[in-house]
């Protein structure tokens, strides 16, 4: 049998569990006591005051192939086996994860194969997180004792633990009862009695305050060993006998029935309900819920005195009656009237309304999801600074995922040829360095390793570092800003920027990208003055295969206006171009996305920059407007007329090559986004007939601010597959354009896709025109499309 | 460099390598989107990329690896409510075996996944991986998840089928896994053997349940399969065959594996060895013609970045069969220590100790063997004239003809690529 001891920190759990272990060992039982407190002093009294190496220390110091259970188990009083899980120093790492890791290691090393009668888990303080709750899980704890004194906070902790147990309970009860470790306070027994009645649990042992405990502790022994004849030693022996009874008879266990906070306050502190505003709210809530089941103090429990060992009693739930003798009642749990509301005061009204379902069984209200993580967004931004090193503070999985996402565009860009590959073996990509947090860094905190990685990079000559945090480092509370500050003292000439986005704890990809850009913007020298003829490009995508090609097209368009690109913020940007960012007079937004608009606002506010709002133009009409507007904004005295006329001549000449094949042909367009103006322009310029534009219901492209499509476009929103099929039948288009090509052969109509990432500039539509003109001369359905169906 | 996946990714793809099994990721969308993409890329299940085809709360337009899309609040409050809803949503869709795998972040909050399974009524067809490991090598994630899966399936002892073998230690993460399975099946059929289950690449739950009837387990990548083979030996007394040279790359290693299998089962290896012999002969004439006027491939240099059990037989074969020069051999994390030691000893013995554990980007070679991204980098830096993608991540080449680098077919492919790679770079 496995037993867990929970209770408020400092309440005496270790003393109680060690004495119980000693009593059980004395009676010939094979005992294992597992201390689950980072202080690792639970088993000290069983070991003559000796502290033993902890599981976590052992795992850190011993290579996996040399690890064995013998290195972790220590024999104490009467052969009782002792284990301490250990944990991190206060305030760092994740003690909960430490317990999880220790338990996993013990299982891996074969603890379950050791012949034991009883395992006792002595668990740290309160059930503050899932890690501390591990011993509560069914596979570990068959029974749970609550150790408490009569102080309010101790009882409050005990009640919290009951909540934790309830979360883990399925059908069988698991609470073994309350152990009162008395502090000798006034009316302490009465408070415990009231609490025990209210939660329906017996007080299985009452341990009076006695100085012989401290005398035994000084000797590093339990009472059983140091003062075997003492009255208190006998209490533990009786408790041991009770445990043995539980081993044989699980009906001596009880369901967890925690109180609401206000009930506890009323019960223990005697606070009047009228004094407490929260009670009003609670009652309102009850009314809402129509909860009629109430808890009436059972007359049979009134005036009951605490004995050293209380025999479990039968408690009667008035509401349903079925809870009589809840101890061992396997059917009670999960029934709201029994397990969830017996201590909820009756509602004022008698109306019967449905009650709220317990957690998990009713419809869950789910939040809108985050797309991607801020860590990936921030790294995507900082990775674009040539010569900078981004330190990824997290496990290798995070480094792998982001390096895989960035690798393709990085290799296409060839920018690594410029930056070199020194020390590449440590990097996920040139420019990315993973801290590779391991289990021990998670448990004990990862800042030491982070500092080592930063120092290695700085010592090798790196001068610009960004440090970005992941979910695991955020969850364990690693303070990367502190680590960076320390490193700045050691390397005062280096520039190191922490970006504590903590994976997705702070937001999604867009948020992280914005945060990353903000940090990079700190490199901008505000004192740099403007120079004529320079512009910055803001917010290129960096993921599309077309990014570089599109940049070159825009660069050429700008050249036509007598402009040069100063800085690409942020796309493969050199440090010098970022520093001299303010040389440019105008800033051009590459795309009109949410994160780019956030970036625009930020840069405008902090650097007083002017922006040209029109994003990279796609198609002839858009490009003409873009060039005209840009020329006008820059007031260069530059007349774009000749430039535009030359472009128009080329465009018209090219269009006329294809229009003979396409003129009069009917087109149906189906799209997820309205960002298709350039496609519709091309259709018109070719003299094709646009029969309908169907916009499908989706979130794609919804973050863009788009001009509405012209009124004469036959537009249908929330367009469905069914409508598409009907339109093909009725409108008989020659060509259907959509985001994704249909795979089911459609005999009567040519289909093509709309490029997800179109080429920018005047000639975007020509690619389409050329393709459509040949497409209509090809078979409507290619042969392979007939091969995908099920075999007949 | 860290292009190679770790235990978390390997854990997910272990389950995703089973035809009728699905991973439910208890984690954020950042972890989900990548692994959905990866699973679909390595083991395609659907024909279309249209995200509208995979709408639904937990799917985000992707067919595979639905997730609980955790955010900060779930890390604080626990994720079980969402998980229970995800479980019931997925459970209604099909009868797949399910695995709930925690993301690294989710594994820190200690949610009791088992209770969620019970509440959702899917305990019998679902198992959990609480923590795949932090920065652990991919093979560990593969083996641990594989063992958890086998424990969950509660395999029964079945009567032995003398001509049935399992292949253990092949992940859908491995380059050309489909072609490898086909090649091994072909070679083993020459020994009169049939393959029962392939753990874990394109196998079914039913095949796994029947896997205890195999007469022998063949461990392909030892770092991915040795522990699992040991599990079968302990539970069902099924012997295993493990080539001391690692995976069967090159004629020698292929022959050795076939001999070991035949020895284990007491059968005659001749039919399969004759087949290898014929392949040796046919490649001889081509190599001889090329060599006669160029003197090559002897003396051409190579670098490798791969798993130890692949790097060792490959380096050995390139050196001994083709007379090529090892300049840099770097193994991925988590390799079999025994094979790693053999690789090191081999390079020292032949006077190429500097090549051991050397990153390929430090050497200029004639031909490099690595994952797609490393090759891209090496080519861009001018560190190799030709490159052969032998492991993932892939550059994205879409294979129509099933390929492998193992067995006879694989050796011939390697020869073809090496000779033509050298030829085109001259």
Description of the molecule:
The complex is a heterodimer of chains A (792) and B (426). Chain A is an alpha/beta fold and 792 residues long. Chain A folds into four domains: 2-301, Rossmann fold (3-Layer(aba) Sandwich), CATH 3.40.50; 374-521, Nitrogenase molybdenum iron protein domain (Rossmann fold), CATH 3.40.50.1980; 534-616, 3-Layer(aba) Sandwich (Rossmann fold); 651-787, Rossmann fold. In chain A, the strands form four sheets. Chain A has an eight-stranded mixed β-sheet with strand order 3-4-2-5-1-6-7-8, with helices on both faces. A five-stranded mixed β-sheet of chain A has the order 10-11-9-12-13, sandwiched between helices. In chain A, strands 20-19-18-21-22 form a five-stranded parallel β-sheet, sandwiched between helices. In chain A, β6 (143-148), α4 and β7 (175-181) form a beta-alpha-beta unit. In chain A, α25 packs across α27 (764-775). Chain B has 426 residues and is of the alpha/beta class. Chain B has a domain at 7-153: Nitrogenase molybdenum iron protein domain (Rossmann fold). Chain B is built from 15 helices and eleven strands. Chain B has helices spanning 7-16, 29-42, 72-77, 80-93, 113-120, 138-153, 177-189, 205-209, 222-236, 251-265, 270-294, 308-320, 337-349, 372-381, 407-425; strands at residues 21-26, 97-102, 126-129, 161-168, 194-199, 214-219, 240-242, 301-306, 325-331, 365-371, 384-391. In chain B, the strands form three sheets. Chain B has a four-stranded parallel β-sheet with strand order 5-4-6-7, with helices on both faces. In chain B, strands 9-8-10-11 form a four-stranded parallel β-sheet. In chain B, α7 links the parallel β4 and β5 (194-199). In chain B, α1 packs across α6, α4 packs across α5 (113-120) and α11 runs parallel beside α15. The chains are: A alpha/beta (792), B alpha/beta (426). Chains A and B meet through α3, α13, β10, α15 and α17 of A and α1, α2, α3, α4 and α5 of B.
């Amino acid at each position: 049998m496995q037993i867990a001891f929970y209770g408020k920190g400092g309440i005496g759990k270790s003393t109680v569990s060690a004495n119980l272990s000693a009593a059980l060992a004395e009676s010939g039982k094979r005992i294992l006591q597992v201390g689950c407190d980072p202080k690792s002093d639970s088993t000290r009294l069983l070991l003559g005051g000796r502290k033993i190496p902890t599981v976590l220390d052992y795992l850190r110091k011993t290579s996996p192939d040399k690890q064995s259970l013998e290195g972790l188990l220590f024999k104490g009083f009467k052969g009782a086996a002792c284990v301490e899980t250990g944990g991190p120093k206060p305030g760092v790492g994740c003690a909960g994860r430490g317990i999880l890791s220790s338990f996993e290691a013990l299982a891996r090393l074969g603890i379950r194969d050791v012949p034991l009668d009883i395992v006792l888990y002595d668990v740290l303080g309160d059930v503050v997180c899932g890690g501390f709750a591990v011993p509560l899980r069914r596979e570990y704890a068959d029974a749970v004792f609550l150790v408490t004194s009569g102080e309010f906070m101790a009882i409050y902790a005990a009640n919290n633990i009951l909540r934790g147990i309830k979360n883990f309970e399925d059908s069988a009860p698991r609470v073994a009862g309350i152990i009162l470790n008395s502090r000798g306070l006034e009316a302490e027994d009465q408070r415990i009695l009231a609490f025990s009645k209210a939660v329906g649990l017996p007080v299985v042992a009452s341990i009076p305050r006695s100085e012989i405990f401290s005398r035994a502790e000084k000797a590093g022994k339990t009472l059983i060993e140091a003062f075997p004849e003492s009255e208190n030693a006998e209490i533990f022996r009786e408790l041991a006998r009770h445990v043995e009874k539980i081993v044989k008879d699980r009906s001596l266990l009880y369901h967890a029935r925690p109180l609401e906070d206000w009930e506890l306050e009323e019960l223990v502190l005697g606070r009047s309900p009228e004094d407490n505003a929260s009670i009003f709210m609670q009652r309102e809530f009850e009314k809402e819920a129509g909860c009629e089941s109430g808890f009436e103090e059972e007359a049979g429990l009134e005036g009951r005195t605490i004995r050293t060992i209380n025999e479990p009693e039968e408690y009667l739930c008035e509401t349903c009656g079925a809870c009589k003798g809840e101890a061992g009642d396997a059917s009670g749990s999960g029934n709201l009237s029994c397990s969830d509301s017996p201590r909820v005061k009756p509602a004022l009204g008698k109306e019967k309304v449905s009650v709220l379902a317990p957690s998990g069984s009713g419809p869950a209200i789910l939040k809108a999801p985050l797309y991607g993580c801020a860590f990936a967004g921030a790294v995507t931004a900082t990775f674009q600074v040539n010569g900078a090193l981004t330190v990824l503070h997290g496990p290798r999985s995070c480094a792998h995922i982001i390096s895989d996402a960035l690798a393709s565009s990085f290799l296409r860009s060839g920018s690594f040829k410029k930056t070199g590959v020194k020390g590449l073996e440590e990097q996920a990509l040139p420019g990315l360095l993973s801290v590779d947090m391991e289990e021990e860094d998670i448990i004990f905190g990862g800042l030491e390793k982070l500092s080592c990685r930063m120092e290695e990079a700085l010592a090798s000559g790196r001068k610009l570092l960004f440090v970005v945090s992941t979910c695991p480092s955020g969850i364990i509370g690693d303070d990367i800003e502190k680590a960076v500050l320390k490193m700045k003292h050691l390397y005062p000439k280096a520039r190191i920027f922490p970006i504590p986005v903590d994976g997705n704890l702070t937001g999604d990809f867009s948020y992280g990208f914005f945060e990353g850009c903000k940090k990079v913007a700190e490199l901008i020298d505000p004192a740099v003055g403007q120079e004529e003829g320079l512009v910055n490009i803001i917010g290129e995508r960096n993921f599309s295969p077309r990014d570089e090609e599109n940049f070159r097209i825009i660069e050429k368009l700008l050249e036509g206006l007598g402009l040069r690109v100063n800085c690409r913020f942020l796309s493969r940007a050199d440090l010098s171009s970022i520093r001299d960012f303010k040389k440019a007079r105008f800033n051009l937004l590459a795309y009109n996305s949410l994160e780019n608009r956030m970036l625009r606002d930020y840069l405008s506010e902090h650097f007083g920059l002017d922006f040209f709002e029109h994003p990279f133009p796609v198609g002839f009409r858009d490009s003409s407007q873009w060039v005209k507007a840009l020329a006008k904004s820059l007031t260069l005295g530059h007349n774009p007329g000749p430039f535009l006329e030359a472009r128009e001549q080329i465009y018209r000449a090219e269009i006329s090559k294809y229009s003979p094949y396409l003129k009069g042909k009917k087109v149906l367009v189906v799209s997820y986004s309205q960002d298709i103006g350039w496609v519709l322009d091309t259709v018109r310029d070719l003299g094709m007939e646009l029969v309908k534009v169907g916009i499908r219901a989706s979130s794609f492209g919804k973050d863009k601010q788009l001009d509405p499509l012209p009124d004469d476009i036959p537009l249908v929103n929330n367009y469905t597959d069914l409508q598409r099929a009907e339109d093909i039948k009725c409108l008989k288009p020659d060509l259907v354009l959509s985001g994704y090509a249909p795979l089911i052969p459609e005999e009567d109509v040519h289909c093509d896709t709309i490029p997800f990432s179109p080429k920018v500039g005047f000639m975007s539509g020509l690619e389409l025109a050329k393709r459509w003109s040949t497409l209509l001369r090809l078979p409507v359905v290619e042969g392979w499309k007939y091969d995908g169906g099920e075999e007949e | 460099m860290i292009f190679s996946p770790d235990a978390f990714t390997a854990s997910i793809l272990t389950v995703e390598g089973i035809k009728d099994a699905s991973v439910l990721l208890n984690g954020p969308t950042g972890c989900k989107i990548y692994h959905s993409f990866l699973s679909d890329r390595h083991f395609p299940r659907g024909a279309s990329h249209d995200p509208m085809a995979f709408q639904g709360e937990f799917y985000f337009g992707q067919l595979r690896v639905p997730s609980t899309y955790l955010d900060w609040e779930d890390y604080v409050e626990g994720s079980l409510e969402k998980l229970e809803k995800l479980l019931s949503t997925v459970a209604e869709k099909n009868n797949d075996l399910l695995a709930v795998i925690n993301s690294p972040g989710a594994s820190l909050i200690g949610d009791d996944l088992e209770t969620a399974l019970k509440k959702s009524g899917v305990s019998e067809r679902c198992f959990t991986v609480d923590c795949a490991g932090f920065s652990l090598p991919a093979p560990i994630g593969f083996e641990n998840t594989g063992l958890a899966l086998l424990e969950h399936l509660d395999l029964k002892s079945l009567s032995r089928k003398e001509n049935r073998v399992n292949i253990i230690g092949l992940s859908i993460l491995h380059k050309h896994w489909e072609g490898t399975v086909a090649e091994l099946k072909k070679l083993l059929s020459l020994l009169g053997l049939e393959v029962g289950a392939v753990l874990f690449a394109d196998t079914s739950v039913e095949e796994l349940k029947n896997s205890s009837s195999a007469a022998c387990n063949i461990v392909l990548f030892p770092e991915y399969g040795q522990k699992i083979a040991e599990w079968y030996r302990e539970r069902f007394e099924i012997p295993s065959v493990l080539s001391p040279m690692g995976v069967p790359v090159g004629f020698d290693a292929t022959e050795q594996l076939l001999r070991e299998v035949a020895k284990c089962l007491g059968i005659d290896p001749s039919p399969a060895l004759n087949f290898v012999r014929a392949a040796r002969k046919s490649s001889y004439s081509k190599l001889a013609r090329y060599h006669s006027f160029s003197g090559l491939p002897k003396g051409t240099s190579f670098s490798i970045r791969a798993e130890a059990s692949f790097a060792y037989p490959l380096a050995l074969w390139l050196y001994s069969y083709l007379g090529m020069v090892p300049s840099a051999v770097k193994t991925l994390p988590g390799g079999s220590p025994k094979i790693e030691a053999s690789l090191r000893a081999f390079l020292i013995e032949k006077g190429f100790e500097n090549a051991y554990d050397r990153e390929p980007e430090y050497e200029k070679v004639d031909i490099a063997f690595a994952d797609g991204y490393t090759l891209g980098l090496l080519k861009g830096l001018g560190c190799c004239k030709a490159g052969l993608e032998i492991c993932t991540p892939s550059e994205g080449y879409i294979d129509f003809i099933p390929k492998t680098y193992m067995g006879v077919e694989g050796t011939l492919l390697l020869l073809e690529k090496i000779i033509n790679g050298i030829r085109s770079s001259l």
